[in-house]
Design a protein that fits this description.
By secondary structure, the chain is of the alpha/beta class. Helix content is about 40%, strand content about 20%. The mean pLDDT is about 90.
């Protein structure tokens, strides 16, 4: 049985010796001290293991899980998940960092809402070149709120937003039930697992800036966002999973809420190419894709201040802003 109140931090690492001290110091400075920090070193060729071993020696909450063969982030996460003892789990980037109250705020909401499968907060980016942090408010609520699964489905349907996996905690049992990170989904694995958990169990939202994603030109996410050729087969993999018995309970909710991993115009053509994909084509999905296509031309002409204001007005218009 998972240790009640214990939070397992899974931190995959591949040649990030330079960033590890910042990430580990931020976790060890948490006001919630009931932690186990599993750093999975994916056969690094730099001094990463020396750095991790030094932290492991100084604090018993840090544990090195050393892999002798480079197999990628997904394998690293799933390997650590198999040994995780915590009631809750966070997947942390070795080059990212969090505020000292991050874990405590997330745990408090999860304890208050025992049915919720995960917590999340406003996404924030730390731009390495400018050393500047930027918060992207979701404007879902002015105070912490927990959405049950049906309320969350309606919220996604009315006003799509992205849950950034690094901004909160998963309930470990729900994460395992969702299948962890699916290797066949590559960079969509966290998107898929997060939605499965949220649509099955509901989620807690904290309107706060708690976790920072480091933006680098060579990052895993940056490289994959540019990989247009790989998007179609990954969409097809998502459709295949949703058609399987394991995720058949999720498919109707995703169709209803017009949730797909890719909203570029070619996605409509890709969906038309398969019987399962055609089931997802609804007037709402078409409006969402076309709207995002038009917005891609308008966005550079609109200031950041007005973009945020429009986002806030959209949230107000849906009438779905939560209350505690």
């Amino acid at each position: 049985m998972d240790d009640l109140g214990l939070v397992t931090i899974i931190m995959p690492n591949r040649n990030h010796a330079h960033y590890l001290p910042r990430a580990l110091d931020a976790m060890l400075a948490q006001t919630w001290t009931k932690l186990e920090i599993v750093v999975v070193d994916d056969a690094s060729t730099d001094t990463s293991r020396d750095v991790i071993t030094d932290y492991e020696r100084r604090d018993p909450r840090v544990r090195l899980l050393a892999l002798n063969e480079h197999r990628g982030i997904i394998n690293a996460v799933n390997t650590a998940l198999a040994t995780a003892r915590g009631e809750f789990v966070n997947i942390a980037g070795a080059d990212d960092f969090v505020e000292p109250i991050f874990v405590q705020r997330c745990v408090a909401e999860m304890i208050r809402n025992p049915d919720a499968g995960l917590s999340f907060s406003d996404p924030s980016e730390f731009h390495e070149l400018s050393q500047c942090a930027i918060r992207y408010p979701l404007y879902l609520s002015e105070q912490p709120v927990c959405y049950d699964r049906q309320a969350l489905i309606e919220l996604f349907r009315a006003n799509y937003f992205h849950i950034s996996a690094n901004t909160g905690l998963y309930r470990t049992a729900a994460f395992r039930e969702a299948g962890g990170y699916r290797p066949e989904l590559h960079w969509l694995c966290d998107w898929f697992a997060t939605l499965v958990i949220a649509l099955r169990h509901g989620a807690c939202f904290l309107p706060e800036q708690l976790a920072y994603l480091t933006v680098r030109g060579d990052s895993y996410s940056a490289r994959n966002l540019r990989n247009v050729k790989a998007k179609q087969p990954l969409l097809e993999q998502v459709l295949k999973l949703l058609a399987s018995p394991e995720y058949s309970d999720i498919a109707p909710s995703m169709r209803y809420a017009a949730l797909i991993p890719e909203y570029e115009l070619p996605a409509l053509y890709w969906l038309l190419g398969s019987p399962e994909g055609r089931k997802f084509i609804t007037p709402r999905l078409i409006r969402r894709i076309v709207g995002r296509y038009v917005w891609s031309f308008l966005r550079p002409l609109v200031s950041t201040q007005w973009r945020r204001r429009l986002r806030q007005l959209q949230s107000d218009r849906t009438g779905m802003r939560g209350t505690n």
